[in-house]
Amino acid sequence: xxxxxxxxxxxxxxxxxxxxxxxxxxxxxxxxxxxxxxxxxxxxxxxxxxxxxxxxxxxxxxxxxxxxxxxxxxxxxxxxxxxxxxxxxxxxxxxxxxxxxxxxxxxxxxxxxxxxxxxxxxxxxxxxxxxxxxxxxxxxxxxxxxxxxxxxxxxxxxx
Length: 159
What we know:
This protein is an alpha+beta fold. 28% of the residues lie in helices and 32% in strands.
């Protein structure tokens, strides 16, 4: 989002890229952060309701953040290279409605995206606006597997 608040349109979609979850990465993440049986081994996962090794939801969320930041850094660099002044991203006041809709199994590739759902001018910080978005991940079959509603401050154009 190198665009200023005024330039961002509701409905705008930003592709954040793809990520393939490998078995080794799923287990490595789970050992450190979410050591539930269905994240730790194919054998243990077979005995659970998932039936196969699957990624922690927190792993899928972490990958979202990695791709979100990388995409915005690349857009920032591109704007500077083109001689444009990129808008600043501010903090996020939070998110809501986090959902892990379907399991993400070893070998699945997710495509992450952000869809702008609304805009709010900040009354307390007139130099900023709030962008509201649906953050989404679809698997290789096109099924929605992860989502949340996010909000972030974006710099407004100075007059």
